[in-house]
Amino acid sequence: MTIVTDIENAPPSALKPPSKPPLEIYLAAPRGFCAGVNRAIEIVERALKQYGAPVYVRHEIVHNRFVVEQLEAKGAVFVDELDEVPADAVVIFSAHGVPKSVPADAKARKLFYLDATCPLVSKVHVEAERHHDEGRELVLIGHAGHPEVVGTMGQLPAGAITLVETIEEAGRFQPRDEDRLALITQTTLSVDETADIVALLKQRFPLIACPHKEDICYATTNRQHAVKEIASKVEQLVVIGAPNSSNSVRLVEVAERSGCGHAFLVQRADEIDWGKLGRPARVGVTAGASAPEVLVEEIIAAFRARFSVTINEVSVGRESVHFKLPRALADSSAAARS
């Protein structure tokens, strides 16, 4: 055995840093921001430019702490309720939607407000009102307490909508009139679990009025499809997103049901438990619809610092959806360009 004691005279091989273990990263696509999230963030940023800071935002504009902190640095102030907003201020409602009482309160206080509700959530609100006007009792598949569910149920009088969270609850549900029923869903649910609940409700109540396609949004569906494509190929899967982000939590569940041994949620790279991660050969990475691509890049950089990384992007399609801004902002933008 040769023991090197003189670094200056050591052979080049003795000076090389230890080699990093190889790692294949399967990167899901689509991932990250959806059109509704892009629109909501742009509404806050344009409002700050047009009206000046501070601009108040009721609840997190989207469920991502990094995004919220970036907007706070630009002058956005996030509040829980409208009574925290001073008179004559500009206030924005989050992408998840709000009960009808919220804009009514804003009008009563003469607050100028902008509604950043995702248009796909607004579509569910319109469906709910139409069914209610036609005399139907509504069933909403969703998660209790989620802001979107609170907003949707708040479109109609108390008792008009029954919330169903599980297939067991769907089995126990007893309507007032099974011939006058309609179904709506939260937009960020598990596609497969929701399909099972819908199937049971249709079996029990054949006349239930359903949307042509479940209300789960295109972005939620696409991100779950991408995770299914890579789940069985990897030993572990990292989902970048917030614990209060429904679509991000669903991605973890979908990955584990689709053959991934261990899927976990992190908001930033510093939350990864590298000791628990060990030395896998293949890891999947995706991001929920509220997580920006910069956080994906941060996660990949953290892996590169510890592994010799090869990236395999697995795409299940491209997204080209774009939603218009509220007229108050769109008109000012057009005027600025003319």
Label the structural class.
alpha/beta
- CATH fold-level topology of the largest domain: Cobalt-precorrin-4 Transmethylase, domain 1
Task: List how many beta strands DSSP finds.
Answer: 12
CATH class of the largest domain: Alpha Beta
CA-based gyration radius = 24 Å
Mean pLDDT: 93
Largest sheet features: 5 strands, parallel
What is the count of helical runs? 13
What spatial order of strands do you see in the largest sheet? 10-9-11-1-12
Terminus-to-terminus distance: 78 Å
- CATH architecture annotation name of the largest domain: 3-Layer(aba) Sandwich
General form = flat
Beta-strand content: 15-25%
Order of helices and strands: HEHEHEEHEHEHEHEHHEHEHEHEH
Q: Kindly give the count of domains.
A: 3
Helix content: 25-40%
In CATH, the homologous superfamily of the largest domain goes by the name 4-hydroxy-3-methylbut-2-enyl diphosphate reductase, catalytic domain
Low-confidence stretches: 1-7, 333-338
Explain what this protein looks like in three dimensions.
- There is one protein chain.
- The protein is α/β, with parallel strands linked by helices.
- It has 3 domains: 22-33 and 218-315, Cobalt-precorrin-4 Transmethylase, domain 1, CATH 3.40.1010; 35-118 and 322-331, Rossmann fold; 120-204, Cobalt-precorrin-4 Transmethylase, domain 1, CATH 3.40.1010.20.
- Helices cover 40% and strands 18% of the residues.
- It has 13 helices and 12 strands.
- It has helices at residues 12-15, 35-51, 65-74, 101-108, 119-133, 147-153, 167-172, 191-204, 218-231, 246-257, 274-277, 293-304, 327-337; strands at residues 22-29, 55-58, 76-79, 90-93, 112-115, 137-141, 161-164, 181-185, 236-240, 262-266, 282-287, 308-315.
- The strands form 3 sheets. It has a 5-stranded parallel β-sheet with strand order 10-9-11-1-12, with helices on both faces. Strands 3-2-4-5 form a 4-stranded parallel β-sheet, sandwiched between helices. A 3-stranded parallel β-sheet has the order 7-6-8, sandwiched between helices.
- Helix 3 (65-74) links the parallel strand 2 (55-58) and strand 3 (76-79).
- The longest helix is centred in the first third of the chain and has 17 residues, at 35-51.
- The radius of gyration is 24 Å and the shape is flat.
- The protein starts with 11 loop residues before the first helix and ends with a helix.
